[in-house]
Design brief:
The chain has helices spanning about 20-35, 55-60, 65-85, 95-110, 165-175, 185-195, 225-230, 230-235, 245-250, 265-275, 310-315, 320-330, 340-370, 395-410, 415-435, 440-445, 445-470, 475-485, 520-525; strands spanning about 5-10, 10, 40-50, 90-95, 115-125, 130-135, 150-160, 180, 200, 205, 215, 220-225, 255-260, 285-290, 290-295, 340, 375, 385, 385-390, 500-505. With about 525 residues, the protein is α/β, with parallel strands linked by helices. The chain folds into two domains: about 5-310, HUPs (Rossmann fold, 3-Layer(aba) Sandwich); about 335-525, Isoleucyl-tRNA Synthetase, Domain 1. The structure holds 5'-O-[(L-methionyl)-sulphamoyl]adenosine.
Length: about 525
């Protein structure tokens, strides 16, 4: 694997980020960090989608310019991602100058090639979706099924993209590449949508929408949001219609594009058609994740249950975002919906991160100090020159086998499932400690056996720190520090021999890696 390029959807900036947006950025960051452990060159793109009628209207009602609204809200997204340790390579804004210029040239090229043509049109426009809706998709009351709002009747002269020209090629691609859409059960949905697709409007009359990218050579039209937004995945890399940059040549096609299930149609139909029209390779995978509900209810301003990711960190007084990252990244099986509740959050992170994982390390290091002044002796190793020579062979094998299972899950973008494998390794290791009772061995004077058990556990803790790193980077670093383990090691270089002989740690340097979320604090935040 010589490069790995992954992207998220770019968020609308007519409000602040909520934990649904955060869910997507967290799972993508977890994937990015995992692949950094396997590949030297990972490019992770995220950003904001800033044009369109909705932004124009929100800004007007706030009495500010659209650009002012975008600047203010894009910053809120950046701040939130910083607080969550989202380690992106570029944060693209669709108002960025380089993006705007390239989108104009892409549009111009598609007009020149005959993929975009002008036509007059009357249709039902939903500003929530920023697209025209097919009357057959409306609810019985004539509302947009996603936004439960009545679409506006819009009659305009627009540019149209010849989606129908690419219909058969898209169907063929989806059928021939069963792992193109992940999870696979969503592919049928897309194939059904493809049955009655029409050419799509890709511009709006400036008399109706001023906040958009101007069409070159036509003063009356601005480019409609989806062609602008989707192009970000290539403009960010410096794609240009005539001379694609080296960066573009290196990273495109994307290895995975992470999006929510609600915008799969745009990514698996419109986006493919645009790429085909530009004669560019297609992304390898589209990961359509499910949605996050709050206490089992859909998040909505009218219900008043919209939660900001930073408020979770604040109300639980979390020093690091790790617990929240872990909870979110394991909240739903691949592609399925997940739920957030304060109570469940508290229970899960206390159980998995504090009681099981953190405590295991803490107990083991404390015993090493108590019985051996923190020293690992030569005879404690169950492994010599990467050969298993005794001691806890099967457990060490299980641990390295888990590395492969976790990698397999990540290859299928099954993030929560990868998390479960890690928790399972922690549980197995805890059971090993209980079964082998090093404290009894010490009492009976069986010091070498006792040292072997502790060393085996510490070897496995090194592996666990590497596996948990993408989910919980700060906790992993704290674990690795106490184990004198080099976290920058690639996953493929992990061995049975991560611990060195000599004094590993002293009493003062043993620190809990994760403190239990205080239950009183959590209750307080719930009643807020
Ligand atoms: N701007 C478009 C995407 C353009 S991509 C070229 C958009 N923006 S959005 O702000 O409405 O949504 C951004 C992402 O957040 C989408 O992938 C969407 O599915 C995701 N989510 C929005 N609410 C969500 C939840 N409640 N749960 C999980 N993800 C959610 O669509």
């Amino acid at each position: 694997m010589d490069k790995f390029y992954l992207t998220t959807a770019i968020d609308y900036v007519n409000g602040a980020p909520h934990i649904g947006h955060a869910y997507e950025k967290i799972i993508t960051d977890v994937i990015a960090r995992h692949f950094k452990q396997r590949c030297d060159d990972v490019y992770f793109l995220t950003g904001t989608d800033e044009h369109g009628i909705k932004i124009q209207k929100t800004a007007a009602s706030a009495g500010i310019t659209p650009k002012e609204l975008c600047d203010e809200n894009a910053q809120k997204f950046k701040d939130a991602w910083k607080a969550l340790d989202i380690d992106y390579t570029r944060f693209i804004r669709t108002t960025d100058e380089d993006h705007v210029k390239i989108v104009q040239r892409i549009f111009q090229k598609l007009v020149k090639n005959g993929d975009i043509y002008k036509n007059s049109y009357e249709g039902l426009y939903c500003s929530g979706c920023e697209c025209f809706l097919n009357p057959k998709d409306l609810t019985e009351d004539g509302l947009c099924p996603d936004h439960l709002k009545k679409p506006e009747i819009v009659k305009e002269e627009n540019y149209f993209f010849k989606l129908t020209k690419y219909k058969d090629a898209i169907i063929k691609h989806i059928k021939e590449n069963p792992d193109f859409i992940i999870p696979q059960f969503r592919a049928n949905e897309v194939l059904n949508q493809l049955e009655d697709i029409q050419d799509i409007s890709v511009s709006r009359a400036k008399s109706n929408v001023q906040w958009g990218i101007d069409v070159l050579d036509d003063d009356e039209q601005s480019i409609y949001v989806w062609i602008d937004a989707l192009s970000n995945y290539i403009t960010a890399l410096g794609y240009d219609v005539d001379t694609p940059s080296d960066k573009f040549k290196k990273y495109w096609p994307a290895d995975v594009q992470v999006i929510g299930k609600d915008i799969l149609k745009f990514h698996s139909i419109y986006w493919l058609a645009i790429l085909m029209a530009l004669d560019l390779p297609l992304p390898k995978h589209i990961l359509a994740h499910g949605w996050i509900t709050i206490d089992q209810a859909k998040m909505s301003k009218s219900i008043g249950n919209v939660i900001s990711p930073t408020s979770v960190l604040e109300s639980f007084e979390l020093e690091y975002p790790d617990a929240f990252r872990y909870y979110m990244a394991t909240a739903a099986p691949c592609g399925k919906d997940g739920n957030y509740s304060d109570e469940d959050f508290k229970e899960k992170v206390n159980a998995h991160l504090a009681n099981s994982m953190g405590n295991l390390l803490n107990r083991t290091l404390s015993m090493l100090v108590k019985y051996f002044d923190g020293e690992i002796k030569e005879e404690f190793f169950a492994v010599k020159n990467n050969e298993l020579v005794g001691g806890s062979i099967s457990l060490l094998k299980t641990a390295l086998n888990k590395v492969d299972l976790v990698k397999n899950n990540f290859d299928n973008f099954a993030i929560a499932e990868a998390g479960l494998e890690i928790v399972n390794l922690v549980d197995i290791t805890n059971k090993y400690v209980t079964d082998n009772a090093p404290w009894t061995l010490a009492k009976e004077g069986k010091m070498i056996e006792c040292g072997q058990v502790l060393t085996t556990v510490l070897e496995i803790m090194c592996i666990i720190s590497a596996l948990i790193y993408p989910f919980c980077p700060n906790i992993a670093e704290s674990m690795a520090k106490q184990l004198s383990f080099d976290l920058s090691k690639k996953l493929d270089d992990l061995t049975y021999e991560n611990i060195k002989t000599g004094v590993l740690i002293s009493k003062e340097n043993i620190k809990p890696v994760f403190l239990r979320v205080d239950s009183e604090l959590a209750d307080k935040s719930k009643s807020k």
